[in-house]
Please model this.
Amino acid sequence: MRVTPLLCLLLLACAPRLVEGTYLIEPGQQLLLSVGEHLKAERKAEDLLTFVEVVEDSRCPRDVQCIQAGQAVVRIRVLRDGVLTEENVIVDGQAIATDRGPLELSSLEPYPDTSGGAPEPYRLSLRLGE
Model:
């Protein structure tokens, strides 16, 4: 799924922003985070997740035929069992455990292509399980 700027704005508009770069997420909600932004499950709670950086993006560009699909790996800070840990995670739709339930790392946008032009900043699509 290609995330257009309008869809990005709509997704961000649905999530209450507490302070610049920090969003409140509720079960079942999908949200896009940019590098350095944070998720909270409650206003006064610690950060549930922080998108630290993209470690690897070896995904095959849309307009190229590749032998391997490649992968996107991001570094996140996640609150698990009351402890904030930092780890590298492959973005493949799998859910990771958090203090508020499973958090699915759905996709990393933009998807690579060979059209050239200035690259857009990365956005990580997340969904908190219900």
Notes: Residues 14 and 27 are 13 Å apart (CA to CA). The longest helix spans residues 5-14.
